[in-house]
Design goal:
Family: Belongs to the glycosyl hydrolase 13 family. GlgB subfamily.
Distance between the termini: 46 Å
Strand content: 15-25%
Subunit structure: Monomer.
Oligomer: single chain
Pfam families: Alpha-amylase (PF00128), Alpha-amylase_C (PF02806), CBM_48 (PF02922), GlgB_N (PF22019)
Function: Catalyzes the formation of the alpha-1,6-glucosidic linkages in glycogen by scission of a 1,4-alpha-linked oligosaccharide from growing alpha-1,4-glucan chains and the subsequent attachment of the oligosaccharide to the alpha-1,6 position.
Shape: elongated
Helix content: 10-25%
EC number: 2.4.1.18
Amino acid sequence: MHLPAPPPEAPEEAARVSAARQPSPTVRDEAATAPAPVKKARAPRARRATPPRGVRPAPALGADERARLLEGRHHDPHAVLGARAQRGGVAFRVLRPYATAVTVVAKGLRAELLDDGDGLFSGLLPLAEVPEYRLLVTYDSDEIEIHDPYRFLPALGELDLHLIGEGRHEELWTALGAQPMEHQGVDGTRFTVWAPNAQGVRVTGDFSYWDSVAYPMRSLGSTGVWELFLPGVGAGTLYKYDITRPDGSHTLRADPMARSAEVPPANASVVTASRYEWQDAAWMAERGTRPPHQAPFSVYELHLASWRPGLSYRQLAEQLPAYVKELGFTHVELMPVAEHPFGGSWGYQVTGFYAPTSRMGTPDDFRFLVDSLHRAGIGVIVDWVPAHFPRDDWALAEFDGRSLYEHQDPRRAAHPDWGTLEFDYGRKEVRNFLVANAVYWCEEFHVDGLRVDAVASMLYLDYSRKEGEWSPNEHGGRENLDAVAFLQEMNATVYRRCPGVVTIAEESTAWTGVTRPTDSGGLGFGLKWNMGWMHDTLRYMSKEPVHRKYHHHDMTFGMIYAFSENYVLPISHDEVVHGKGSLVSRMPGEDWWQRRAAHRAYLGFMWAHPGKQLLFMGQEFAQGSEWSEVYGPDWWLLDSSYAAAGDHRGVRDLVRDLNRTYTAAPALWERDTVPEGFAWVEADAADDNVFAFLRYAQDGSQLLAVSNFSPVVRHGYRIGVPEEVPLWREVLNTDLEVYGGSGIHHTQPLRPEPVPAQGRPASLRMTLPPLATVWFRPQG
């Protein structure tokens, strides 16, 4: 569930001309530091009456070509700018708005070009061939020497263009976007962007004081890619693309492939290059040794920006790994970290799919955080949002003047719930953009998993749409076949390229085969959120104990389909927002002791149940208020000065012990996805609010879980067990005093008695604590 983005704001580029938008100090070369003042008008300048010595007029541009160049509609500016040999010498033409003079400088050559007006300078020099030259550009108060961007060959190879055209470039981020590089012996940045409907594209930024005229890009054929190499532009440079739409109007856009962006609400793209040296080789080598569905997998979900509000990625790296490791979680799941303009969307309305949000630091800072978690033995899952994107007019919506990333059919382009747009999964370039993005996060940031958001909204053409608001597929059905093919391709590509990575679907329907391999017709995910289990069990827990017997099936129904997919049991952020309250506040009663006891008992039931676990931040210590992205968790509840701090610390200690006991008990995770790993012992004790089941490891070792969701102590309660186990010892009890419970527990191992119970020949006679879950293992 996501919040809508705020109304998009038109970019105020005039403001960028202010002192606050002067060239970045990290722009290192002359082309990026031209000091020419920005002016509003370009009054034509008269030709010089007497040409400089040795410089003759170059062939004049036709009126139409001149207009297309100056208006940003020229598809091949390199054909008219730069230098080229021709009859009578070498012709030079330069576009430098606001310059007063431009001089060609080479070995043994210094020739001032003629002023053609509108920032154009040209001349024909009596040379036999094009020299290695530079340009000396004079402004009213300054003079700079630069390389001419229009003397360079394309910096994008034919193989890249072929793969882009085929929609099969699995490393798309290396071909599109802003790429610092050395080209023809010169340092600079290659800018490339896909805009097939554009009449022309120009790159602008702080290197040009946000004047768009000087740097038109060239079209690289039928791929729709535009390219320009700018010498001297380096990391830290701010930039955007000025796109001339099919109707001749202009739109200023952030780079869809930007690897970094300004801190919102600013939205320019930032040239970046990673210099990070990873220290997690051992983790990366080991992470794929055991399939996730057969391994311990316990996830702490968090929103990075509010976990400890105000901390940077590097500051988080000092605190988060230690906290998560102490609690025993195997993984963290980060709500979306891709760049997004509106913090209230929690990251689910993405504008920069290739850029970690700059709110907390640079992309390398984010790499440092992931590396730190890995070195602490913790896997990193990130939420990934290919289902939709916001309509901000500086981002992806109608990027080049027409529907491009979104579907052309309005009935398939608009997301009905969130006021956003849906991707056109049938367009090969869009599919490539998303598939490569999934690979990018895994390869460039070493993430160990992608939790794919809102999969159900992708799979169904009629999702949240009424009759007449959607069109069926070619077979007359409601399945979005393009989305199915995209998800299969994404999963197959990620699993092939990134060993050890797991993909997880947030899919809330009964779609068949979500975690079935793609070669068997499935979607190919590794795990799926079990939304039905979550809704059913929380409904049961929300009832007063006296009424729970009428909802007993809510706790047992999930076992009917528990092995149809590889499941995660999610108590996620969606369950503690929008008026739902926190997990503990959803427990009934005015007595906070009973609420916290029910909270603990539910976690004990959940950790023992087939499926992996996910718990959202703040719920590990039973905070009473629902989550706010502004304030984050109520850490003050753990402060010793707070009277009830011990109770909250007790719940946190229970979560720690749940994770440690769980990880040490293969019966709880080795056979999560097969019926042989589970057996009901007591599923029908509705009047007692009691449940009991056995879990089995691959070697046959067992764990018995018993839950009493009644607030009364049940003495002498019989639970049937296998007769071959001589002794059972209590290994976890959510009612211990150290957790804030009443302290009813079994100090000695229990010996089975030859008294039949629940269809088994032997049974344990035990005392069930109130509102508690107890785990037993055979005495070793």
